[in-house]
Write a structure and sequence with these properties.
homodimer; about 500 residues; alpha/beta; Rossmann fold; Thiol Ester Dehydrase, Chain A; 3 domains; 8-stranded mixed beta sheet; 5-stranded antiparallel beta sheet; 16 helices; globular
Chain lengths: ~500, ~500
């Protein structure tokens, strides 16, 4: 029989829970008296369906069944998990728990999405307080893995174990909070930063946008992969965490925030932090941690670059600005010798292009050749403006000879020859060089298409003319080794 | 003539500046009396050389020349930019500026890396205060784009403009801080969070590792791409930012941090924030922002997945846990019908695999086929344990027919046939299916190599035996359309 999740209270958070359970194969029953609940949850579900399944490298289970219930009883009967996400009013939450447990008898875990209340407060007055705990997620619930799991002293340990197992099976990371406090752990940081941000705006130091930039172009990137303490461990260097705290310590006494109540840096506290940090990160040297950090930063910034957002948009702007002043061929008018192969890529191999064999992954050869083809298309006139008018080239066929290994950091170049540029067809041959080493060749046939019909169509006159000119000039070049080969053909 | 940067004070920050200037083509002159400075900067430079050049999609300029100077004068004479990164002692910094300006006469921008001092304090007593400003970077300086640029009221505006232009040309984002305050903007947040973290450790609520997890599995990922206000704008939904603040407002009065001095949420402050947020993000609807956020999160989490770190390591653990209970072929012993094609990929297409044509990018076809080959290698015995013993397969040749478009979210499968598994050779043919649509074929020849010599070598007996068995069984299959074709061959 399928697992059933009862979602009490829809909205963004309840909807996020519903989406995660559903896409992980659970059946979901929603109870929310809001007449808009079905629409709201549907919107969250749309977002989840487009983003969550591809996050994993294997297929998710078949999606479960979603049902909106008329009564609370209908939703919670037979449930394996009840998740409460009603508004942040303590009496309301307590009343909902009493009603839930009247129906199901206290045999089911009730997780609360509360961001502020302690589980002891929530369970106060419940018939079965042992089944109640905080399971506080982060928006968007269908993507972010963190769930703060906070039991109260009376929560049945078996329920806590079950909760950890279930949340893990949903692809989440249950963080068991050791002692219940208001706002658990993460929201204390959010609150501290929010208060500081309010002061900065109020005092006219920075605008909301400048504050966001100060976060996402700097420490936000660090925190997304290592958090606070591991980042500072690296900053402290080989001298260690205790040394770092001693150095950073005096700032605690300086007027660096509007919020001045600070703990004393006793030897006890310094030792606690240093030894926890050793346990957390001590199996790796600072040098190793630095490289891991840099690998992560490069990978995330390049991921954002592909999205043209945040730190990645900065990188794109910067590439563009440098293109304008570079020697490489960026435009048809810049081609000096029309009869020579055209340089279409000139770059270093980024850290995130290597694989378990320690060299550039095979798929990145095609990425380089794809970039070369994009540049060649651009040069003949199939640029962003042209594509916006509804025409583009789609690759129909690819042949790659992987001739030599390439490592991260290596400077690579691609030289491109046009073998055929007649009609709808574009047949190009790329040579990938690292210095004097020919590392790969790529032979590609592209077809011009209408982006509306997705069917073959003729390119613009300008493109046809330029392609024809380049093809005619390139015909005089000797045929490069590898052209027209089939896979496995003798050399 | 080349631009020259004078780096006064080495260490991690000075070294990071030196690396960024050098790799952007500037000549760099370092002055630091520390006898270890050359070694320390060399280490930072090693890290920068391996990570920065590949971050960009075009080649960086030729690296500049690095020279360590015996005297401050030698370093700053002829400099275009002086960057001071000496220890955080005000008198020391002031003394250094006096000496610098004695040598160069006040014609050069002096940027200070100070994280705490205000520029007015720094410039106090200087002969040419107009040339002094704060240029506060973030570690690692060679990767993170943020620089807080803080002039004092007496800083020459021309110097501020030049500083913005120079920092931008280095691939950085100069954030001009509107009013000077202690610790500028970003470090106020770092300090607030640091104080809160100290309390949490001291009170035994969470360990350093749990705190790091609370950050990097949750809001850290949000902040890396959108920061604080744009994230909350989304959380507020269509009702807008003012509505969000009203809802979130009461929490300011709750005991959610140890640091309780809070600004009053006057109408003025609410309006200021709401209208700033409109200017920042108002050109996009909440729905658009949600999708951008999800695209970014998926892209960053998948980037971390490839690094097997943070939220990405969680995803890998979770994939592995699900593999153990899945029906797909994960091991040789699980093959039910040795004569049938083997299912080697079964997944959804992630959001970050699409390109400007709105479909799965051509390079991702090879990524899918590479993943299929990896799985096939795994099945015949070339798994992580085997690779650790020094043998692996390298792809020598690839032929792809791109037969149909695939969109993000589509469930895809790959079926793999072994055409040849004799000796050092592995010749496989993949069919990529989306439901009943054949979207691509991939034909690949791999060669078994020794990872030590990087030369061809024989695989283990187990691999040879399994490959031989599968090849013999697959010979009975009809030859699929597309095998042995060359690029451009008639169908």
């Amino acid at each position: 029989m399928k697992n059933i999740a009862a979602i009490i209270g829809g909205g963004v958070i309840g909807g996020g829970w519903a989406a995660r359970f559903l896409l992980m194969g659970w059946d979901v029953r929603v109870f929310d008296p809001d007449p808009e609940a079905e629409r709201k949850i549907g919107e969250v579900l749309d977002n989840a369906r487009r983003s969550l399944p591809g996050l994993s490298d294997t297929a998710l289970p078949t999606e479960g069944n979603l049902r909106f219930c008329e009564t609370l009883e209908d939703a919670v009967i037979s449930a394996t998990w009840v998740q409460e996400s009603v508004p942040e009013r303590l009496e309301l939450k307590q009343k909902v728990y009493r009603q839930i447990q009247d129906h199901e008898g206290g045999s089911v875990i009730i997780g609360s999405s509360t961001s502020g209340f302690k589980p002891t407060e929530l369970a106060d007055g419940a018939k079965h307080p042992e089944a109640i705990l905080v399971a506080h997620p982060f928006n968007p619930v269908y993507l972010l893995p963190l769930v703060e799991l906070v039991p109260h002293p009376g929560t049945e340990p078996g329920f806590v174990d079950d909760a950890k197992e279930i949340l893990t099976s949903l692809g989440m990371h249950p963080l068991l909070v050791r002692k219940e406090i208001d706002a658990h752990v993460a929201d204390r940081f959010l609150e501290a930063v929010w208060r500081e941000a309010l002061w900065l705006v109020k005092d006219g130091i920075a605008t909301t946008e400048e504050i966001d930039d100060a976060i996402r172009y700097g420490f936000g990137l660090r925190w997304a992969q290592m958090g606070l303490f591991e980042t500072y461990r690296i900053a402290g260097g080989e001298a260690g965490m205790a040394h770092f705290i001693e150095q950073f310590g005096p700032a605690l006494k300086w007027p660096w925030t509007k919020l001045m109540d600070v703990p004393d840096l006793t030897d006890d506290l310094v030792n606690t932090i240093a030894s926890q940090s050793d346990r957390q990160s001590g199996t790796r040297s600072i040098r190793q941690l630095e490289r891991i950090r840099d690998n992560n930063l490069v990978a995330m910034m390049r991921a954002l670059k592909a999205q043209n957002w945040g730190a990645g948009a900065l990188l794109n702007d910067w590439d563009t600005a440098r293109n304008d002043t570079s020697d490489a061929v960026m435009d048809y008018a810049e081609i000096e010798d029309i009869g020579a192969p055209i340089e279409t890529v000139n770059r270093a191999v980024p850290l995130d292009w290597t694989d378990y064999n320690g060299h550039m992954n095979e798929a990145k050869y095609l990425q380089v050749f794809g970039d070369a083809t994009d540049r060649f298309m651009w040069i003949v006139g199939c640029d962003a403006d042209y594509i916006a008018t509804g025409g583009s080239y789609f690759t129909a066929e690819t042949h790659i000879r992987h001739l030599d290994e390439i490592h991260a950091g290596t400077r690579i170049r691609v030289e491109t020859i046009c073998l055929n540029g007649q009609g709808k067809k574009m047949h190009v041959f790329h040579q990938l060089w690292a210095g004097e080493r020919l590392c790969a060749t790529g032979e590609h046939i592209l077809i011009h298409v209408s982006l509306e019909t997705r069917r073959p169509s003729d390119p613009s006159d300008k493109i046809a003319r330029r392609l024809g000119t380049i093809e005619a000039a390139h015909h005089a070049l000797p045929t490069p080794d590898g052209v027209g080969r089939f896979v496995g053909a003798p050399r």
